[in-house]
Amino acid sequence: MLLKGMVQDDVDGSVQNGDAIIGINEDEQSVDAIKKNNIRQDSTIDLFANIDKSKLDNDVHLISLDELYERFHTDPIQGLTSEQVEHAQQQYGKNKITAPPKPGYVMLFIKQAFAGFNLILWVGGILAFLAWKPIGEPNPNIANLALGVVLFASFSKLLPTLATVRRNGDEQQIVADQLVPGDIVLIRLGDKIPADCRLLLCDGLKVNNSDLTGESKPVSCTVQCTDVNFMESTNILYYSSMIVQGTGEACVISIGDKTVLGKMNALTRDSGHDEITGLHREVNRFVLFVCASTCVAIIILWITWGSWLNKDHKGFLSVSDNIINSIGMIVGFLPVGLPSAVTLVLTIVAKRMYNQRVLVKSLQIVETFNAVSVIATDKTGTLTQNKMTVSEILWDTQNVYKVPVPEYIPAQDETIIDTVRRLSVGAYNTARRLSMGAASVVKRLSSGNLTQVTQHETNPDIALPSLASEVNVQAFRDLLLGAALCNNAEKQFVQEAELGGDIGNMKSELKLVGDAADTALYNLCVDRCFIDVDKVRKVNPRLKALPFNSANKFMITGNLLESLELPPSEDDGRDVLITLKGAPDMVLNRCSTYKTNDNIVLNLSQDIKQRLVERQEELGKLHFSKNGYRVIAMCQQKMKKKGYDYLMSQYKQQEKERKEDQEDLSGFPSGEYSFIGLFSLLDPPRPEVPDAVLKARRAQIRVAMVTGDHPTTAQSIAKQVHILTTEIADINGIDTFKRSEKDGKFLLNLYRNGQLTGTHVPGEVKKLDIKESNTAKTTSEQIDDKPKPNIWRRAWSRIKLQFSDPQSEVNRDKQELIPYAIVVTGSEIQLMDDYMWDWVLSHQELVFARTSPEQKLKIVMEFQRRGEVVAVTGDGTNDAPALKRADLGVAMQAGTDVSKEAGDMILLDNNFASIIKAIETGRLLSDNLKKVAVYLLPGGSWSQIWPVFFNLWFGMPLALTAFLATVFCMLNDVFMSLVMVTEKPEKDIMSRPPANRNKDHLLNMKLLFHAYAVIGNIECFTGFFCFFYYYIDNGIPLNHILLQFENFTATNSHFIPDELNTIVYTGQCVYYCSVCLLQFFNFFTSRTRYTSFFSHNPFYGKGQNLYVIVGIGVSVGIQVIVTQIAWFNKVFQTAPVPVKYVLPTLGFGTAWFIIDELRKLYIRKYPLSFLAKIAW
């Protein structure tokens, strides 16, 4: 175990120094004797490598109780005094685990205000102010000042719990963070251990240490030390562990960060990893592209002006005009709507994920979901329900009742009609159960016997009713009665304080408390058989109980049965039901009779007993491979109350004379019971997991099970949830490998379906020869002893990391997956070299069983070395390193706080299916950001830079001013891009392969070609067509527009200057409105990548997005305000636009819409065609 390896060195050191050679139990068993029985197995990874081990009190479990009291200055009867507590609190502080440091909000503001696109806007804003004054003197243009203003305007813990302690001789409840070492803590069922403690007293105490070990099996506690290893000794209780049975008292030995959990938390908190997410890099690459493009365009602009225009056409453009053109270039290349779109899409994703019961700690990590190619998942609690469930009830020698499992129906949007139907059906079922129960009571009352049941001949071949209330078999009813009475599970109000809330205002939540078997039987009675357990227990009060313990392996209860014939005052005449449940072998040995299906009690002969044993074995063969399979047998015995009282009085009289080795059953009979039947229990898979795994497989994501359970159990659950499928695991085969020895050399024998297929010599580095061209590169070929790079190389590496993903050592594209399954155990992982890892991880279906936490971490690292993007689930403290290392760490809400801190996201419902939903949401995020880019670049970039270049090179009037370009980018396009990010997923989004981080960037050549060369050129052509159409229609021919430079006014002298200025301003607004209108068509074509508009339209159906109407309305409104309102016309030099001059845009837009629909149809029909390969 991971934690065992962490502390073993400390214990060994203390023993060697002679500090811990102490008698620890009544048999004076020495520490050396314990060490001989506990051979250390070295861990691969030491999680306490950075911790001073000399400060760990790892002998505290070895010393005697008297030494313990002396060390912590405490008293088991009186506890600590108030003065001691105050002094200890000053010395040790509060019992809290240090939270991670909070971010500095000033630095966050600076980063947001000056990073990325915002820095470019700062530059543009400053230039606009300079163009107004002083460069714009002596006639500063107020529009330049307004442009600058517009540019600047574009920036737009552990929950407190209570602990019962003994202080100053009194028991009192305190807040857990007030505990100090030496406090005497009182422990009972359902408590959460508030600190690391040493047990002083225990009565049938069992604790769940899954927070640390990841194993949910309860551990029986003792007062004596049972292991020299601190983490293995059962007299130590660890912070955050849960008490599942019994009571006890303990002494606090460590609090807060000094606890084992605290040390693990510090490790995961301090160990950093690459905090630069894929989304950061995508945006950084976008910024780099924009900066480079803007710089190149501005350099061309100034070279053109300085070397040609300022000499040959002096007076055509002034310095101020050229600065404004430079600003136009900045705004033209800058997709201003992208930062807002990224913010909004992350907000939408956060809301969507919360509705899917997923909490993402950093929204930037969501982009990683799009690239996840492997999910390494736990089994218990993630794939399975982590709840024992009764699957079958058996009685007699062949009768069985299969407990109905509710059919899983995926959650869908519910209409009003569905709601009415659901409520009416629920009301009908409730009335039906009540009427059946009433009829049963009337029939029993009329017969004069409350316990009488109508008998009939039952053929075991005839199927029993699915409803338990309709099964009229007395043995079956007795089993249910025993399940309700011989059961310690009960519902209790558990108090918990809200985060940051007042301890005095704690909320109480009703929860079922008890061990796994008792809660399974309780849920059987309540949920499946509709029995009011509380009422049954009330009318059949418990007289006495013998709790289950590891020695007896059974539980006995005595209950006074209800009687309608006798008044309550005459209890002596009533029957007492003694029920015994436990392990089948222990129960059968105490039975002399058994009850048949016909309610006849027969002698339990050796033959019948053998048949019952064989039946149990057959049941075991049937369910052995199922997770957590368990069988509980039950028997009973009835006697009068007088007889029961006599037994109890005899027990009390003989109690003092009883020998230690004599069986103590608290007065209950030791035999002569009547065998009733068996309960079959198992931990079933979550009903929604199989569909989720199939959905992941369709998305070409491999799901690998990594569990600590037995390989057979893991393999069975993997088949039930489709991790191992019929097509691959059953038909093609399952691979395994085993270690062998030949001629003094160790070999690994490779098997397929049990047949030897090859051998491999461990340690010899080989290439995985799947195909000649698919050779994987191994790390042995890399030279590791390179000199440390200098400061400049390190700085360059950090800068490079901002833009490019870390390169994996092995390229996944060079390793082809093979259509076989494989099951690997933890003991075999230690034998694997690079060749074996290549071979194992090339399988399409993978199951890793009996793995330790360090092996889980190794599996994650090996996946990553081969270029996989790995998502890992974990709930225990020992899962923290793997969660931290993974590309996407998925913690469970039911897990430890350390695992939640290490993970990137938390599943609030602990459900594997939520991971698949999160991946789908991550793909939607990536899709929508690409769509935003495709939408923004043509109109907000390409269509804005060419008017500037045409103005420079062809001496024509500027077709689009910097102000109109800014309004277009920051208002028109921003609103429409925000509508784009609210788009719903296309139907094929989960049938695409995971994104390749090295190729599938937000900006790539395919997207740029589509945005600029295709849509951008269409928009530019349409805008200039409408622009020239307006000029020609107003009496200015094409030869009076082009190549006129400073002579434009003189050439068109038949217009007075004011008229000519109005034509220029109107032409600019015509270009602006034309591009705005064509952007609507661009929106409708870009909102789907491959799906037809008509099957994913925004007006109805699954693709409905009515925000489109709002976005179009706002964009049209902005155009009207800018061009039609006189104040804007005067200040910003705009003019009203006649509608007829932008109507050609409708024709061009419709033509483009039809062409794009045909393009998508061709891609869907021919997905391997050239057109499909260049599609964005």
What do you see in this structure?
Residues 59-133 form the Cation-transporting P-type ATPase N-terminal domain. One of its GO terms (molecular function) is P-type sodium:potassium-exchanging transporter activity. This is Cation-transporting P-type ATPase N-terminal domain-containing protein. Pfam families: Cation_ATPase (PF13246), Cation_ATPase_C (PF00689), Cation_ATPase_N (PF00690), E1-E2_ATPase (PF00122), Hydrolase_3 (PF08282). The chain crosses the membrane at residues 104-130, 142-159, 286-303, 323-349, 932-954, 960-982, 1007-1032, 1063-1085, 1106-1127, 1139-1155. There is one protein chain. By secondary structure, the protein is an alpha+beta fold. Among the domains are: 75-132 and 160-271, Calcium-transporting ATPase, cytoplasmic transduction domain A (Distorted Sandwich), CATH 2.70.150; 278-357 and 917-986 and 1006-1174, Calcium-transporting ATPase, transmembrane domain (Up-down Bundle); 392-406 and 471-497 and 505-564 and 574-650 and 669-680, Calcium-transporting ATPase, cytoplasmic domain N, CATH 3.40.1110. The chain is 43% helix and 16% strand. The strands form four sheets. The protein has an eleven-stranded mixed beta sheet with strand order 8-29-28-27-9-21-26-25-22-23-24, with helices on both faces. Strands 10, 11, 14, 15, 16, 17, 18, 19 and 20 form a nine-stranded mixed beta sheet that branches. Helix 6 runs antiparallel to helix 11. The longest helix has 42 residues, at 912-953. The radius of gyration is 38 Å and the shape is elongated. The model is unreliable at 1-56, 131-160, 270-274, 413-417, 438-462, 497-503, 765-786 and 808-812 (pLDDT under 50).
